[in-house]
Amino acid sequence: MGLHLSQLTASRESFTLNINNLDNIKVLIVDDEPLIGSALMQLFELEGIPAIATTTPKSLPEQLHLNWPGVVITDVNMPQLDGISLMRNLLTKDKDLPIILLTGFGDIAMAVQALKQGAYDFLEKPFNNEHILDVVKRALEKRELTLENRKLKRELESQSLPGPRILGRSPGIEQMKHIIHQVIDMPADVLIEGETGTGKELVARYLHDHSIRHQANFVAINCGAIPETIIESELFGAESGAFTGADKTRIGKFEYANGGTIFLDEIESTPLSLQIKLLRVLEDRKVERLGSNKSIELDIRVIAATKVDLAQLCKTGEFRQDLLYRLNLVTVPIPALRERREDIGLLFLHFARIASSRYHKALIAHNAEQVAQLTSHDWPGNVRELRNLAERYVLLGGEAAFATAINSSVNLNCGMSLQQRVEFFERLLIEEALSHNKGSIKLTMEQLEVPRKTLYDKMQKYELDRKRFIQ
User: Fold this and answer.
1) Residue 337: DSSP 8-state
2) How many whole angstroms separate alpha carbon 49 and alpha carbon 41?
3) Does domain 171-335 have CATH number 3.40.50.300?
C-alpha cells in the first residue's frame, strides 16, 4: 500500500520546526515536500513510533547529539541541502547513525554509491508503506544495539581510565550510574542531590571526565564559601573599573569554563539577588562581565549540587522555583552510605590501599570485629568519614583507628541479618585475595584454601570479575 498524499494538507511553513529536543523522537524525516513529511509522520505514529518532520535540514548536524536514539529518513534532492551532503555531515558527527535515503528513479546510482559511504538503506519513490516500516524498525533495532554497546564500552573504560571512579554495586549506586551514563554526553544540565560527604563533586568530575567535554576546563565553585559581595564578579567576571578595586579585567568562572563544565556546589547558598541573574545565564547561555554591555556566548554544561531539599526552600521563599525548574532537568541522587552498606567494605579497602601507597605503610588485614563495626556504623559523614577512617587505619593501626572513630559496641540492629553479615565478610575476603594476587585465580584459591569451582561460584554470586583486579 502506497502513500495517499492527496488526502493530506500541510503548509511548508508548518514543517519548519524547532527541534531542540529530539530525545523522545525515534524517526526524523527530512523532505522539502511537506506532504511527504506529513504522510510519513502519520504512518509512523499509527505504528506507535514517535516521528517528526522538517523541511529545513541545514541545522540538523548541530541539533543531533552523539547518542541520539533515532534514525533519519532524508530525501536526496532538496534545494537547501541535498540528502547526500546531509548524510555526510551527520555521519561525521556519528558514524553509526542509521540514515535512510529517499530517491527518485534518476538517483539510484547515486544512492548505491551512498551505501558505500555509510547510508543504512535507500528507498525508491513511490515506496510501499509496509516496506518502509520494516526498514525503519530494523534500523531502530540496530541503533538501540549500537547505543547499548557504546554504553557498556564506556562503563568498562571508565573503570580503567585515569580520573574519578564510582565504586559500588548496591542498587542505589547502580541506579545512579545508569542515570549518569544516560546523559553523560548530552548537553542537559544536571542537579546532584546528596548528603554532606556522599561525593557530589566526584560525581560531577566523573560526568565531565568521561564526557565529550573532558578536554576542556572543569571549574568548581562552592557557592557557600564565596562572600556575597564578590560572588557576582567571581561567576560572571568584571571589566577594569567596574567597581572599586577592579583595576584590571577579570574573567569569570562561567567564561573560563566555556567549552567544558561548571560545577556549582551548595547551590542552595546562592543569594536570592544573584539567582535571577544566574537563571538568565542558564537560559540564554550568555554572560556579561560586570561593567560591560557585551554578551559572551557560552557552550557549557552546568552541574549544580545541593545537600538540602530545594523544593522545600522554594516553599519558604529561600530559593527561586524557576531556577529549580531550570536546574533539575536531570536529577542524580547519591545514596547515603548507610543506604549502601554492601559497598562499605569495597570502599574501605579502596581508600586504605590509596593511603597505604601514599604513606608507604603496609596494609594490615582487618578482623571480623572490625568488619562488623564498619557495617553497623551509621556513617553520618558518609564516604568522607569512611575515607578518613581508612587513612587513620593505615597510619595508626587497626585498634587505635577504630577506637577513636567508631563506638566499639556493635549495633546489632543495624539492618543486616547474620546471613547478610557473613556474606559481606566473605565477599570482602575474596576481594582482598583477588586484589592481593592481581586477579590470579590459582593464587587466590591457594590463599583462601578453596576449590576452583567454589571460588568461581562465589565470584559469580558476588559479581566479582577477576579483570577488575589484574591491575
Assistant:
1) G
2) 9
3) yes
